[in-house]
Amino acid sequence: GENVEQHPSTLSVQEGDSAVIKCTYSDSASNYFPWYKQELGKRPQLIIDIRSNVGEKKDQRIAVTLNKTAKHFSLHITETQPEDSAVYFCAASGMEYGNKLVFGAGTILRVKS
Amino acid sequence: EAQVTQNPRYLITVTGKKLTVTCSQNMNHEYMSWYRQDPGLGLRQIYYSMNVEVTDKGDVPEGYKVSRKEKRNFPLILESPSPNQTSLYFCASSYGTGKYEQYFGPGTRLTVT
Fold first, then answer.
1. How far apart are CA B74 and CA B5, in angstroms?
2. Most exposed residue of B15, B29, B33, B36, measured as fewest CB within 10 angstroms of its CB?
């Protein structure tokens, strides 16, 4: 089945700097890659997603890139702000098991002001 | 308001005492699932349901049961809880399968002593 690895596990950046979180997946048939943000004590919420027919997608300060050949995808946050501090999860959805979503272990992002 | 609700939000129980965590959604979603969140392990799927009376195992189903008698409800049952089931549990629903945005409930913090 699908396996998703996420790095780094923790990331500290200065306010205004950029942050990059990377994920690799194992199932070459996976074709949907969402990113979820979980603030402290809250539920995970979708912030951006990308499907395999697209190489990059942007939404204001966040962007996701996908390299299907290398089987990895990344989340880029520019001009980080304190409210970006949270746990970020990547995920991949493949063809088996009802298109099950498999999550990475998460990245704790701390934005220092 | 579109939402996923879970009850209870917090539960402390003893080993072996059967419990049920309820989950309900008002978005007419077909796909529902249960996840557990543990530090360093991300979100792992316990069970999922693609429609009424259709359920299947996720990655960590041992010790759990589910049922889907109505489209809106997807309860999680622990017949004989054990301390290794101490975790944060999230119910989620989506329009269809893992290839769509997952709407998470607020979470249930379970402690089994």
1. 11
2. B15
Q: In what order do the strands lie in the sheet with A19-25?
A: A4-7, A19-25, A72-77, A62-67, A56-59
- Measured between alpha carbons, how far is A94 from A46 in angstroms, rounded to an integer? 18
3-state helix, strand, coil in chain A (%, to 5): 5, 55, 40
Tokens of A39: 């603030």
* Residue A17 to chain B, least CA–CA distance (Å): 25
Q: Does A98 touch chain B (CB under 8 A)?
A: yes
Predicted confidence at residue A97, as pLDDT, reads 55
Question: CA nearest A46 in B: which residue?
Answer: B101
Given a contact cutoff of 8 angstroms between Cβ atoms, the answer to whether A1 and A27 are in contact is yes
Q: What is the mean pLDDT of residues A62-81?
A: 97
Exposure string of A76-99, with b = 16+ CB inside 10 Å and e = fewer, is bbeebeeebbbbbbbbbbbeebbb
The pairing of strands B31-38 and B42-51 is antiparallel
